[in-house]
Amino acid sequence: MKHSAYQYGFHDSVRPLYRVPHGLSEDTVREISAQKNESAWMRDTRLRGYALFRKKPIPTWGADLSHIDFDAISYYVRATDKPAHTWSEVPKKIKTTFERLGVPQNERKFFAGVGAQYDSEVVYHHIRKDLDKQGVIFTDTDTALKQYPELFKKYFGTVVPIGDNVFSALNTACWSGGSFIYVPKGVKVKLPLQAYFRINEKRAGQFERTLIIADEGSDVHYIEGCTAPTYSTDALHAAVVEVIAHKGAHVRYTTIQNWSSNVYNLVTKRARAEEGAFIEWVDGNLGSKITMKYPSVLLAGRGARADILSVALAGKKQHQDTGAKVIHMAPDTVSNILSKSVSFGGGRASYRGVAQVVKGAHRAKIKVRCDALLCDARSRSDTYPTIKVEEQDARIEHEATVSRISDKELFYLASRGFSETEAASLVVSGFFEPLAKTLPFDYAIELNRLIRMEMENTKQK
């Protein structure tokens, strides 16, 4: 059975209610803010972001971003008037899209709340009533700005400053949508919360802003997924994610991004962990033209911990430049980074990481492991680790391996009736087992199916 080149590459004939002209200017930023009926504070924040975006250089140290045409992109596309709270309220064509992606079905099976974003705006949002009664806030970020202005302003831009990098500045200028989560003290959200992000418009950008605040002793797991149609022109995804875990809180943030091959995926994701807090990033990257994404944790309180699992699958004409960053700022902090990448069909995967221990962070422990698997002689893997240590009693471990798919493994599987591509897909799925183990069962099955499809499609070409 042959599969299409990209399962989620279909395009919907949905006419947006409103879109700004292509290109970004100060007038465009003002127009986005006006369309959202925002306060002067947020409008001015956007304008500061725009000014910094114009001043900051495009990175040249990672993947090749020289072909991005910022003037060819529409920075705000609105498909609906406001978010719906039941699927029956979502416009029919948009609802059909999310049904094809399995979002409503997964909500019923796995999740305590779901948000769905279509282009620049969230079109659906829902949370279980029992969590609402416990004071859990799970809404889109635009709504949070209006309904919880003091909480929003207290944390917005505190982990990822406006001018952190050129793409965080761009996001600040034209952000729209995303998830806002607040979990009160001691509340444990037992089922995950999920958001799904879909780019539909041609030559469009998506710039969601996600802000998660876990108060003392709370616990939450957030899962996001992303797809887009396949076009001959490029699209841009430049999100910003900020996570704050207060004393003793636990946050797990899981991403499975499967963008089409025309998307530049340039994301800034960072968390701050206070005393005894625990942050987990689970970051799965499939698809896209270029991905540059390095989930980061600031270990700011004594005994804070961080686990980062970064997984990348780089196929034909793809560059996955991914990794992780940990900054140990307090004593007795612990971090573990596991990076796993697979390159096939001439694809390139790069691990780029920072492990830092600042003065005063006594007895910090860091373990970094990078495993790369090459499936053919045309593919490439690189590792760019940076380690900075300012305390003598820190313990740092770094291990890196690069290997090829074993001929013995392929021969064994072939002897059991598997084709060459099926055998290679099974080996890759086993290599990515640490990611699959963190997902709901049906999601793990879907991940393995996506891996198989990606490798089959490359083989067919």
TrEMBL record:
Domain named SUF system FeS cluster assembly SufBD core: residues: 197-431
Single biological process term from Gene Ontology: iron-sulfur cluster assembly
InterPro entries to which the protein is assigned, alphabetical: Fe-S_cluster_assembly_SufBD, SUF_FeS_clus_asmbl_SufB, SUF_FeS_clus_asmbl_SufBD_core, SUF_FeS_clus_asmbl_SufBD_sf, SufBD_N
Span of domain SUF system FeS cluster assembly SufBD N-terminal: 132-194
Protein name: Fe-S cluster assembly protein SufB
Domain of life (superkingdom): Bacteria
Species of provenance: Candidatus Azambacteria bacterium RBG_16_47_10
Family, similarity comment: Belongs to the iron-sulfur cluster assembly SufBD family.
Position of the signal peptide: none
NCBIfam families: sufB (TIGR01980)
